[in-house]
Structure formats: structure tokens, C-alpha cells
């Protein structure tokens, strides 16, 4: 691998292991001894279908996904799922409660940062009735900033919502739910309406496979784009509980919004994620990354590694705050393990910090615009 590579902190697309890229280069010429490169081979070939099944089991085993949930692969990114979860779960709700007026179909959103806010915007754009179950901005002095995960007493959930939505890690704002049940910044699972089939939806786009997913089995849908943690852009991973894979066309006949076929969880599930041509190259590279992850010890290995990295970084940030050179933007206890946001204080100091970092081969540190 070229020694001109730098340390790339880009949040996504983000760095991939050199060993994976070396292997991927071989696969581009010859995938699995077929004599055909991965970007050229039919997605319906035996070799590719086997590979896709292996990718499914690498995720299932490492995250301990139960048989109640399907793992699906699609395109359209996290943004595509902002729409798809609304449409599929509205269809489910319509089949469960065909006679309810539309105003009675409420979607609960927990807003902790700019990505969950975007998801709300899309739900509203699609005409859904939204209840903001909690809005972290209300906790900030200005009422505008996302600086913390709301405490448990700040949530109000609807009695029978179409979905309950949260973003586990807010990439831009650097805010993440704690995965310790007892922490005040954990997701308030105990406050959710009592039901065995909760329509709980989580955006794991920027923390997928970085540590365990608390209460995975209680989720209806978990989604993530590959490009932050497990591969190139172009692949979206879905973990969907089977009761959320519904006949969207039957629901449309009852008045639900028709679901575009590539967004239908059922169309995807019935075709084992091969309803149409999938993103073969990102699937291949994600498989290589997750095979490597398995060999290193799986998600538990990454959880421990990421815990130590976060500790080190937040300790340094604290030290810098005490010296007056940094200012953290997120309240203690709500800080992300994946994206740490802070200001560098002083006239021109941020530019000097970034230039200095670049000289050391550390790129992609500049925060979101
Ligand atoms: C938490 C989160 N959700 C959703 C998205 C949107 O993902 P995509 O660009 O794959 O549509 C991003 C992208 O950065 C993200 O960080």
C-alpha cells in the first residue's frame, strides 16, 4: 500500500483498512477465482449470492441479530431511509388500524441533532403527523443548540405511534446516546408504550458495528449507510423485524401512501435484497471489512478499542479546556465516541490547529460547515 496515505478523520466516506483495500484491488480483477472482477460479475451469479449471504451472517453473528429480524441490503443511504421507514411503517399501521383517520396516525420523533431533525422534515414533507417526543434544543440556553441527550423526564411518547424514531449518534453535533441503561443519557426504553412489537426505529448510520446495539431485539428497524464504519458509500444496511415487512400494496388499497418499489421492505425481503441490481462493489468491500472485524474479535473488540480511544480524546479535551485552548461543544455524558466536536479558542487558532494537523498527516479534522 502506498506510503503517501495520511490519517483520514473524515466522518464518511471514511478511512478503510489498508489490508482491505489491498484485497479489494485483487477482487476488482478476479472475484473469488471466477476470472471476473467484482465490479463486472452478475449479482445473480452463485459466487456473488454466496458472498451476500456471508455478509448477512457476518452482521448477524457479530451483532447477535435474532431470527425475528431480517438483514436487508439496499441503496439510497440514511436519507433514503428517512422516507422508507415512514412509508413502510405507515403501511403497517394502516393494515393494523384500517379505519383510523390520518390525524390519528402519529409518528414520534426524538430530536437530538441535525440528522434526526432532517428525518422529521422528511416525515412532514411526506404529509405525516409528527409528535416531537423530545427536542434537545429546548435544553440549551438559546433554544437552538444540540448539546446533550435529553434526560428521561423530558420525553412524551404517543400511546400507539406509527413509529418511534431516534438517531443513536448525531454525527454533526457529536451527541450520542449512552449504551448503559443506568446512564441519564441512555435511550428511555422503559418509558415506551407497553407493547411486544414496538415500532422503534433507530438511525445507526454513524455508529454501526462500532459497539453493541442495546435492546436490538426491541427495534422494528435499524438502518445504517456503510460509508462511515464498514465500507464505501452506496450500500445501506437494514435490520427489520418481520412484522414490519408488510404488503405495502394491500395497505395502499386501504388508503396508505403507495411505497416506491425499491423502498418497500417486502420487495427487498422477498428477493433476498436482490430485487434490482445491488451495489456490488460496496457489498464486497463491506464483507472484507466485517471479515477482518470478526477475526479481530468482533464488535466487542471494537467496543473496547473505541472506549479507550474516546476516553483518551475526552481527557485531552478536558486538559485543553482547563488551559483555555479548547472548548467542548457537548455536555459531559452525551459526548459521542465516534465524532467529537470542539472549538479551538483564540484568534486564528483553529486554522493553525488544522494546518498543524495536516503537516502531521492528519486530515479531515475540520468540522461540519
Ligand atoms: C446519523 C446520520 N444519519 C443519516 C445520514 C445520511 O446518510 P446518507 O448520506 O447516506 O444519506 C448521515 C450522513 O452523514 C448521518 O451521519
From TrEMBL:
GO terms for biological process: L-serine biosynthetic process. Its cofactor is pyridoxal 5'-phosphate. One of its GO terms (cellular component) is cytoplasm. The keyword Ribonucleoprotein does not apply. The keyword Repeat does not apply. Its EC number is 2.6.1.52. Residues 7-355 form the Aminotransferase class V domain. Keywords: Amino-acid biosynthesis, Aminotransferase, Pyridoxal phosphate, Serine biosynthesis, Transferase. Pathway: Amino-acid biosynthesis; L-serine biosynthesis; L-serine from 3-phospho-D-glycerate: step 2/3. GO terms for molecular function: O-phospho-L-serine:2-oxoglutarate aminotransferase activity; pyridoxal phosphate binding. It is an enzyme of class 2 (transferase). It catalyses: O-phospho-L-serine + 2-oxoglutarate = 3-phosphooxypyruvate + L-glutamate. Gene3D superfamilies: Aspartate Aminotransferase, domain 1 (3.90.1150.10), Type I PLP-dependent aspartate aminotransferase-like (Major domain) (3.40.640.10). InterPro entries: Aminotrans_V_dom, Pser_aminoTfrase, PyrdxlP-dep_Trfase, PyrdxlP-dep_Trfase_major, PyrdxlP-dep_Trfase_small. HAMAP family: SerC_aminotrans_5. PANTHER family: PHOSPHOSERINE AMINOTRANSFERASE (PTHR43247). Belongs to the class-V pyridoxal-phosphate-dependent aminotransferase family. SerC subfamily. This is phosphoserine transaminase. It comes from Marasmius oreades.
